Amino acid sequence: MAFIDYYKILEVDKKASDKDIKKAYRKLARKYHPDLNPNDKIAEKKFKEINEANEVLSNPENRKKYDQYGKDWQHAEQFEKAKQQQQGSRRQGSYQSADDIFGDSGYSDFFESMFGGRASGRSRQQVKFRGQDFNAELQLDLKDVYTTHKRTLTINGKNIRLTIPAGVKNGQVIKIKDHGGEGINGGPRGDLYIKFSITNRSNFRLDKNNLYKTIDLDLYTAVLGGNITVDTFDGKVQLKVKPETQNGTKVKLKGKGFPVYKKEGSFGDLYITYRVQIPTNLSDREKNIFKELQKIRRS
């Protein structure tokens, strides 16, 4: 397998911070995203390379292995075990040099023999190794996770169709079994871990499964009561305001909150806070009426 310079793909320096890598990935992913470059094979290939590079460099452990072992980074653990065995042989007086173990061909041939390539004689073993786990971040808006829906992700050049359950939370990680890297010598595939990054562009505040919203209430409706129309997350509802409602009064709309994760038909509540508005730009007649009311209240 040819060496791929992931730093070059993301256009960052090898000393780049995690923040720099994340910023570079988002910038390039937007630039080469298939939705923005329809029928562009070059952009599609570039998008796949960017995702692959991000999966490695955004993971501190994988990045460390990549920096040390290059194209053989996925087999770093096996290489470390081999070095430990070599050190053990030294302690037992049967020292072998790196050239004795690896020969002139270097590390790559060693990995080939480890994984069923060119080992010979009795030492030839078909050791099975589990595939690498993949990590991906999916950016969604709050409205996107209000209902269960399907979405296609491109991971390492492969399209994966998955169902996103309603009510998934920001920062939540879900595992999709057997959608990671291929195993070696018939070993099981790795898993795919997806982390959700959810932004909230609505005028609702989410806390657990409950939604919160503040609405303006005119003075006259607050004093006399009446019916108003308020927005919920999934439509409008009629709400009855009691007479003499005070500023800051809270009312609960049961079941009008956010869906509970993996509990179909179960929702949190919506809490409405009234913010009573004092009228401005009063006419002379309105001022006189308020003065009369003031006299009545004081008498």
Structure write-up:
The chain is of the alpha+beta class. The protein has 3 domains: about 120 residues, Helix Hairpins; about 70 residues, Urease metallochaperone UreE, N-terminal domain (HSP40/DNAj peptide-binding domain, Sandwich), CATH 2.60.260.20; about 90 residues, Sandwich (HSP40/DNAj peptide-binding domain). The chain contains 9 helices and 11 strands. The protein has a 4-stranded mixed sheet. Strands 1-5-4 form a 3-stranded mixed sheet, with no helix packed on it. The protein has a two-stranded antiparallel ribbon with strand order 2-3. β6 and β7 form a beta hairpin. The protein is elongated, with a radius of gyration of 31 Å. About 10% of the residues have low confidence.
* Major sheet details: 4 strands, mixed
How many angstroms separate the termini? 93 Å
CATH class of the largest domain: Mainly Alpha
Multimeric organization: single chain
CATH architecture of the largest domain: Orthogonal Bundle
Cα Rg: 31 Å
Measured by DSSP, the beta-strand proportion falls in 15-25%
Structural class: alpha+beta
Please give the order of strands in the largest beta sheet.
6-7-11-10
Distinct helical segment count: 9
Which consecutive residue ranges, at least 5 long each, have pLDDT under 50? 93-124
Proportion of helical residues: 25-40%
